Automatic annotation (TrEMBL):
Domain NADPH-dependent FMN reductase-like: 4-155
Listed name of the protein: FMN reductase
Keyword annotations of the record: Flavoprotein, FMN, Oxidoreductase
UniProt-listed Gene3D superfamilies: 3.40.50.360
PANTHER family hit by this protein: FMN REDUCTASE (NADPH) (PTHR43408:SF2)
Species of the source: Agrococcus baldri
Amino acid sequence: MTSPRIAVVSAGLGEPSSTKLLADRLRDATLAALTAHGQHAEVVDVTLRPLAQDIASHMLTHNPSEALDAAIGEVIDAEAIIAVTPTFNQSYSGLFKSFFDVIEEGQLASIPTALGATGGTARHSMVMDTAMRPMFAYLKAQVVPTGVFAASEDWGTASGLDRRIAREGQELADLMVAMPRRREADPFDAESDSFVSFEQMLGHA
């Protein structure tokens, strides 16, 4: 049995990036909570900054590059998603939105998902409820109750950021355990019980 995979999507624009830092912290909290459940997960990092041109090109041509196609595949095939964006004008970044716009309708349905956002001040914290949750509700993802917004002043202070990160990681791990994503067997997979080889069919003739 293979370990479940968590796709960590971060849309930070800088290097280094507080958005990527928050995504990594949410990843670590989720893995720790899964360990407490006696489970392990693999992690796939999907950093959108290097894919910016590919995403823009795909929106114009509807022809994804190999790199973008691989990134989309990692997200839609994951057992859980952690998605983190920087905040601009109390909304997600254009890069973040554009990436999820090129994912086909229904491909994120029922996937346990944790959301995070970063911004200069706490004034942008409503982005979680006014922009991110509605988008992922439309995409039919299973979003955990807690969302973590990290303002610049939250880092390295007693702001409660660590507590919120731990709570969201716990919620995502609990949801992964309670609602594991189940996949239908591929009828063309030779290892599937339902697969009948050409040689077997000849033998039954």
